[in-house]
């Protein structure tokens, strides 16, 4: 008689939405960079596409704040996930996370979402370019390929200020020593007194790129870093005639301050809108029993604001997924930037910040 040694495990799978997670570890990567590890209170398989991000919903000094951070871990280690955050001088959220977040703390997140990932963009020959903390989505992809023994030819190029600012350096060197299809290259802008550095120096330029990856014109490029870094890479690639259809970068859109000012301006403009005309469209919010007629080019999020409903919004560009609500009737035109999955759309969900009604609609809110 055979015995069954398998035990049923009651484990749920992660899906795009609003979740409560607990901080279970804090790793000091460099002097101003820390990795925060999270997991759900009950067993959850945190499946996501390497390169995607989550949006944190925080209360800082009595103010509700949303901020998006890329997941730096890999879904190949699914029972927890991590984000790696650099302390930014004057940065409201990064400084709060570094100074206040501790083991056991509970936080609310939204996601995971994002079109910048190696599941939707498939290639067996890649060039990974990152600058500073922009290494996080690149590292998530690399960890996935490494853990799954994927047959992907990887050339990894990371730019750091100094040798002491290289994030994940020991892990990257371990990968480089263990698999043949991983080519590690670090470029340091400078080195300080007492530091030794035998690698590339300065900034990535055409000459360095031709030495590091002579076949870069035939590779799919994933790029993430500060705006100035990505602009310089794109200019370099354009000059040499690279096919930009094979270039992909991560961007969260407007900086937080600009996004807030844009939202405030929109609210001010909406307060002056005359809504008593015959060609307006009705938006109903079924849970709250409120409805309003809006102009044909206004969003569901605007409609909610006009009737005093607060739908959380992080980016305002259809990227973070924070403003997702369920549409139960009617049609909208949604122009998002990866903040919602096809499965969510099929179930009737929309992003209110970038959804314009095409007729009368009903929203579950």
Q: Based on DSSP secondary structure assignment, what is the total number of beta strands?
A: 21
The rough form would be described as: globular
Structural class by sheet pairing and helices: alpha/beta
Number of helices: 8
Portion in strands: 25-35%
In the sheet with the most strands, the strands line up as 6-5-8-2-3-7
How big is the Rg? 23 Å
The largest sheet, given as strand count, sense and whether it forms a barrel, is: 6 strands, antiparallel
- Average of pLDDT: 87
H-E order: EEEEEEEHEEHEHEEHEHEHEEHEEHEEE
- Unreliable parts: 253-276
Helical content (DSSP H or I, runs of 4+): 10-25%
Distance between the termini: 56 Å
Task: List the defining traits of the structure above.
365 residues, alpha/beta, six-stranded antiparallel sheet, 8 helices
What does this structure look like?
By secondary structure, the protein is an alpha/beta fold. It has 8 helices and 21 strands. A 6-stranded antiparallel sheet has the order 6-5-8-2-3-7, with helices on one face. A 6-stranded parallel sheet has the order 12-11-10-9-13-14, with helices on both faces. Strand 2 and strand 3 form a beta hairpin. The radius of gyration is 23 Å and the shape is globular.
């Amino acid at each position: 008689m055979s015995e069954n040694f398998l035990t049923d495990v009651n484990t749920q799978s992660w899906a795009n939405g609003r979740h409560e997670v607990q901080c279970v570890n804090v790793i000091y990567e460099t002097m101003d960079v820390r990795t925060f590890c999270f997991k759900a209170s009950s067993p959850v398989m945190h499946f996501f596409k390497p390169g995607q991000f989550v949006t944190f919903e925080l209360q800082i000094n009595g103010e509700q704040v949303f901020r998006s951070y890329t997941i730096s871990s890999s879904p190949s280690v699914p029972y927890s996930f991590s984000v790696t955050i650099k302390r930014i001088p004057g940065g409201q959220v990064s400084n709060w996370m570094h100074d206040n977040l501790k083991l056991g703390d509970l936080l609310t997140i939204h996601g995971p979402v994002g079109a910048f990932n190696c599941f939707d963009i498939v290639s067996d020959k890649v060039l990974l370019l990152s600058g500073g903390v922009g290494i996080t989505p690149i590292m998530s992809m690399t960890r996935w390929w490494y853990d799954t023994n994927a047959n992907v030819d990887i050339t990894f190029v990371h730019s750091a200020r100094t040798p002491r600012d290289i994030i994940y350096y020991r892990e990257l060197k371990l990968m480089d020593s263990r698999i043949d299809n991983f080519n590690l290259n670090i470029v340091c802008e400078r080195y300080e007194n007492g530091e030794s550095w035998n690698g590339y120096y300065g900034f990535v330029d055409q000459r360095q790129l031709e030495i590091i990856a002579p076949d870069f014109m035939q590779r799919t490029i994933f790029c993430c870093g500060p705006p100035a870094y990505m602009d310089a890479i794109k200019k370099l690639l354009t000059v040499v005639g690279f096919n930009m259809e094979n270039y992909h970068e991560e961007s969260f859109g407007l900086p937080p301050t600009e996004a807030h000012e844009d939202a405030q301006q929109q609210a001010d403009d909406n307060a002056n809108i005359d809504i008593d005309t015959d060609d307006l469209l009705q938006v109903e919010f079924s849970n709250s029993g409120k409805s309003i007629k809006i102009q044909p080019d206004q969003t569901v999020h605007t409609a909610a604001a006009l009737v005093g409903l607060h739908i959380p919004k992080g980016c305002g560009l259809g990227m973070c997924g924070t403003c997702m609500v369920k549409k139960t009737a009617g049609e909208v035109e949604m122009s998002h930037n990866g903040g919602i999955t096809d499965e969510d759309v099929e179930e009737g969900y929309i992003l209110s910040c970038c959804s314009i009604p095409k007729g009368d609609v009903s929203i579950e809110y």
